[in-house]
Design goal:
Blueprint: H1 2-8, E1 10-13, H2 17-35, E2 43-44, E3 49-50, H3 73-82, E4 92-96, H4 109-118, E5 126-129, E6 134-137, E7 143-148, E8 159-162, H5 165-177, H6 191-204, E9 207-210, E10 217-221, E11 226-228, E12 243-248
Antiparallel strand pairs: 1-10, 2-3, 3-4, 4-12, 5-6, 7-10, 7-12, 8-9, 8-11
Helix pairs in contact: 5-6
Length: 263
């Protein structure tokens, strides 16, 4: 599994009863979060995407109210190969509904075309700044862990991953940061290198869709280019629900020393 993660930049983990129990509890909490008026600002793309940052009420061990800590094969893999599990933030709740993608508020035609035709492919933590919409590293994550919360068909806006893209991204960011003091990396404009690296990824890396059921999980390298595929007209989800996935993306401490490492 470690070799696969190093080569392709992602892994899917098999069904585990502890993870399934967690997902069942998270699904109930997700329903509350989606209906909470305080979270209305997270409904984007004309009602087809609930972004849900920090929407689930888990504690630093991933424990939901009256539940157990987050456990299972993915957590074991992280602890063994990627370092001690850090305190977890409240999980992001990503919910996609039929009709996605539609334009996001304030999104240009070009940006919407990228969302529709390129799955809004991105590396997490690379944020826009300034009126010119340039980019820099503002949220250096350690890894990205996805936990499906409901049963859906594989074509219900699945995760998209470009296999091996983390290596191309690593080289691009390393070239930009070369010669820059580590304490100034967060100030560096990475836009041009990032855009060129994405273009290379599209031309050379295999695009794969990732589907999983509650109780399964998938893990992505922090530098992996990924996105969300459009909703298929034939896609199915439980009545009244969208495709629900909880994500953990803890930020790295002392990230300049580790963010560009292979693990």
């Amino acid at each position: 599994m470690l070799d696969h993660f190093r080569q392709f930049g992602w892994l899917r983990f098999p069904m585990d009863p502890r993870v399934r129990s967690w997902a069942e509890q998270a699904r109930d909490a997700a329903a509350d979060a989606i209906s909470d008026p305080a979270h209305a600002q997270w409904l984007e793309c004309e009602g087809t995407w609930f972004i849900g940052v920090d929407a689930l009420p888990n504690d630093a061990e991933g424990r939901l109210p009256s539940g157990a800590p987050l456990e299972g094969p993915a957590v074991d893999f992280i602890s063994k190969h990627l370092g001690v599990l850090p305190p977890l933030h409240r999980a992001q709740l990503s919910v996609i509904y039929p009709g996605y993608p539609r334009p996001r508020r304030g999104e240009s035609d070009a940006a919407f075309g990228y969302r529709r035709n390129r799955d809004a492919a991105h590396v997490d933590g690379i944020k826009m700044f300034g009126g010119a919409r340039r980019r820099r590293v503002e949220e250096p994550h350690a890894w990205v862990l996805g936990l499906p919360l409901n049963v859906t068909s594989p074509d219900a806006a699945p995760l998209v991953v470009w296999e091996g893209s983390h290596e191309i991204m690593r080289e691009a960011f390393a070239s930009v940061f070369k010669g820059v003091p580590a304490q100034e990396w967060h100030l560096v404009d990475v836009t041009d290198a990032y855009t060129a690296a994405r273009r290379e990824v599209f031309e050379t890396c295999k695009r794969v869709t990732v589907h999983a059921a509650p109780g399964e999980a998938y893990l992505m390298h922090r530098l992996c280019l990924h996105g969300v595929a459009p909703w298929s007209d034939a896609a199915t989800v439980p009545e009244g629900e969208g495709r629900m996935i909880a994500y953990f993306r803890p930020e790295m401490s002392q990230w300049q020393a580790h963010w560009l490492a292979d693990l």
